[in-house]
Amino acid sequence: MISCFVGIDVSKATLDVGFWPELSKPFQLRNDPEGIAQLIACLNELEVERIVLEATGGYEKAVFKALRIADLDVVRVNPKRSHDYAQAIGQLAKTDRIDALMLAKFAQHLASPSKIEPSQARDELSELVKLRDQIVEHRDDDRRRIKQATSPVAITFFTEHIASLNAQIKALDKHLAQASKALNSEKAKHLASVKGVGLITTAKLMAYLPELGTLSGRKITALVGLAPYNKDSGSKSGPRKIEGGRYKVRGVIYMAAWVMIRHVPEFKTRYDALVARGKRPKVAVVACMRVLLVRLNAMLRDGTPWKDYKTQAPAA
């Protein structure tokens, strides 16, 4: 049996499936439980090396989860990566079926990420985290609007709406704590024990970075997008930069790092030393973020408690 790579172009209503090498012409199924079941039945009859689909605003979640449960090697990629690949191979035309074939070709060049088993508890936690972020965004929008409002009616409306949203956020925080414990109570307890890592940071790390505590420090920083990459060419040596990775996790680590820089002597010393050596503040805080992530990863991996150090030499 010839092995193949599979690309799936996902839309709200349909799944366009392509193969490389081209075992058959791309075909289309409905993006619903029946269509997904037909897709899995088809793929189980083949020797599939890897499946690639794009993140499409949530429309891909059901098929992605079903393929993982069926123990198929499936990778979800940022659409920018697949678009850049299409440009690189000169694929300028675009239809759903062409995209499916392009994704199948792309699949042969991708390495499989660390495999995390599907979890209904993690899906629920992720949904609650996303909902809380949306409500916080609405509240903050109203806080900006009320500063510009002059009508007493409008001001009253915004005030009451903000109070209502704050109540919803407070209620959601309780659900987040429960969902984090339901997913992994020991991991949640470990993370929450770290000064600067609160309930929301714990929930987001558990939802968006399930690999935390299972990889090496170098791999976890690369996965999040905090690993500095060389920018050298010939005799030119450019400054190293971070790139790619999970931006939602970086946002969480960024806020936690600032809390620790302000309140944990070790991190304040590290940050101040880097700035004193001429590093830009953003570079210094990224270095602190990297240290924080590596230490959280080691803490969970080794099952050891967090330890604050009185002195720590700053990273180069």
Short description:
This is Transposase. 57% of the residues lie in helices and 13% in strands.
Could you give the topology of this structure?
Layout: E1 3-10, E2 14-20, E3 27-30, H1 33-43, E4 47-54, H2 61-69, E5 74-77, H3 79-88, H4 96-107, H5 120-148, H6 152-192, H7 199-208, H8 217-224, E6 229-233, E7 236-241, H9 247-263, H10 265-276, H11 281-302
Parallel strand pairs: 1-4, 4-5
Antiparallel strand pairs: 1-2, 2-3, 6-7
Helix pairs in contact: 1-2, 5-6, 5-7, 6-7, 7-9, 8-11, 9-10, 9-11, 10-11
Keywords, please?
316 residues; Nucleotidyltransferase, domain 5; 3 domains; two-stranded antiparallel sheet; Transposase_20; DNA binding; coiled coil; transposase activity; Transp_IS110-like_N
What does this structure look like?
With 316 residues, this protein is α/β, with parallel strands linked by helices. It has three domains: 105 residues, ATPase, nucleotide binding domain (Nucleotidyltransferase, domain 5); 65 residues; 86 residues, no CATH class. The protein is built from eleven helices and seven strands. The protein has a five-stranded mixed β-sheet. Strands 6-7 form a two-stranded antiparallel sheet. Strand 4, helix 2 and strand 5 form a beta-alpha-beta unit. The radius of gyration is 23 Å and the shape is globular. The termini are far apart. The mean pLDDT is 90. InterPro entries: Transp_IS110-like_N (IPR002525), Transpos_IS110 (IPR047650), Transposase_20 (IPR003346). One of its GO terms (molecular function) is transposase activity. It comes from Pseudomonas soli.
